[in-house]
Amino acid sequence: MRKMALCLIVICSFILTGCFSYRDINKLLFTTTIVVDIDKDNNPVLYIEAFRPMEASQEGQKLILRGEGKTVFEAMRNMNLGSSYKTNETQNKAVIFTEKAAEYGIDNFIDFMDRDQELLVRPYICVLIGEPEKLLSAKTSEGEYVGIYIDRLLDNVGASSRAINRPINMYMNQRLIGDKVNIVSILEVRKEVGEANKVFVNGGAIIKNDKMIGTLSKEEGQGFNFLLNNVASGTLEVANPDYPGKFVTLEILKSKTKTDINQEGDKIKLIKEIKVNTAIAEVQKGLIINDKNIKQIRETAEDNIKKACYQIFDEYKEEGEDIFDIQEEYLRKFRKEATEDIIKDIELVVNTEVIIESGNDTLDFINAEGR
């Protein structure tokens, strides 16, 4: 028994080995952001923000690399001609396409992102409005590395019911099924007080068959997210029943959208049952919390959600663009392919239920004027 245990220890000592020192890791550049642009001939121009580790007594170094080639892989390898360190993509946080590259076609570049063993499927995919150099030179008080900042920024925008984000693994699935439409975050760089340049999320880019065909504004994002069950948190702003022109903010605690699709002859109904749990987060001016006011706030919130959903649906129904995964829902329900222009035959039915949960408010809360 002891001999067997000794043999296992000896075998493990040979198999379970790691880096002896910092030497191996110091020969790598760890990518934090990949930006894909195109030149006048539509060949990829690749930009990489990378982190070069140093020994324990030294700080790491930020580097920006640029490479060109007929393919993304060639552009990546051409970068190494001007660097004595090999890039490693295991720590990459974001894959960003410029507006020009997205309009030309992401399918010309995405295969490398899926095939390369170092690239993970968790990073976010985005479209950049503007120049890559401006993005990669942006400095914020929240950190030196743009890739890490974008990763945290897109994690954080999930707290808004109007924001849009999409990891690359979701993009890769959606591009091959149903309507083949994706909505990914749009990034913009602009000046901010106290900052040289700052990165903002500004709506979504509509990608159909891997080509950018339009944009979705932040205002449209809320209706879109409710229809596709993408709301986890956020806010609803509702008119204050006691003070015209003032608002009550409801914090979204939980949201669930159930989808059904029914067909009777040529008529197809897309039914969305939206249930939202909220709590009163802020009151402008003041509010008497009683059954009448709570009912009015709840009904107004329900109407606002319906209006947001119908508004964006009608807009894209008129354009004939199915950005709502209707083809997938139809296939799932009826086990047969829907027509490409199914959205033109759809009647949307939105039923909403907003629940206002009790918090620290009292039934006798009144404003400062003693109402």
The helix/strand series, from N terminus to C terminus, equals HEEEHEEHHEHHHEEEHEEEHHE
Roughly how many Å is the radius of gyration? 26 Å
Q: How many strands, what sense, and barrel or not for the largest sheet?
A: 9 strands, mixed
> Quick one: overall form?
globular
Count of helical stretches: 10
- State the share of residues found in helices, binned by percent: 25-40%
Query: What average pLDDT do the residues reach?
Result: 85
Count of DSSP strands? 13
End-to-end separation: 84 Å
- Overall structural class, as computed from helix and strand content, comes to alpha/beta
Strand percentage lies at: 25-35%
Low-confidence stretches: 361-371
Count of discrete structural domains: 2
Structural summary, described in words:
This protein has 371 residues and is α/β, with parallel strands linked by helices. The protein has two domains: 24-216, no CATH class; 217-371, Nutrient germinant receptor protein C, domain 3 (GMP Synthetase, Chain A, domain 3), CATH 3.30.300.210. Helices cover 28% and strands 34% of the residues. The chain has ten helices and 13 strands. The chain has helices spanning 2-15, 72-79, 99-104, 110-115, 132-136, 146-156, 168-174, 218-227, 291-319, 326-334, and strands at 28-38, 44-52, 61-68, 86-88, 94-98, 124-129, 181-192, 195-208, 211-216, 234-239, 247-264, 267-283, 346-357. The strands form two sheets. Strands 1, 2, 3, 4, 5, 6, 7, 8 and 9 form a nine-stranded mixed β-sheet that branches. The longest helix has 29 residues, at 291-319. Residues 361-371 have low confidence and may be disordered. This is Ger(X)C family spore germination protein.
